[in-house]
């Protein structure tokens, strides 16, 4: 009975050991949620008149660049801590740009 228990325990541990990398998916809901929220902010700014057409196009281009960079980072199947930090940095900068453009005094 004891050898059976030990072999089952080892088999279970091996399964968990090999399953752990499968859990490390290249999906980051934090980055995706922020991208979605920033797109909504740009759309809201256009609808409210806080953003001109040119401002909205520049901000949308910046969002596209971040999405392309994210796809490139995830192309190898892993989003490293450094890559995630770079994306967060880009999203922070983009968020500041959205705020600044929505709150400038440029005529619509």
Secondary structure layout:
Blueprint: H1 2-23, H2 29-48, H3 53-74, H4 81-102
Top keywords for this entry?
rod-shaped, 108 residues, 4 helices, mainly alpha
Low-confidence stretches: none
State the shape.
rod-shaped
Number of DSSP strand runs? 0
Largest sheet: none
Structural class: mainly alpha
Summarize the structure.
The chain is an all-alpha fold and 108 residues long.
Describe the overall structure.
This protein is mainly α and 108 residues long. The protein has one domain. The protein has helices at residues 2-23, 29-48, 53-74, 81-102. Helix 2 (29-48) packs parallel to helix 4 and helix 3 (53-74) packs antiparallel against helix 4. It is rod-shaped, with a radius of gyration of 22 Å. The model has no long low-confidence stretch (mean pLDDT 86).
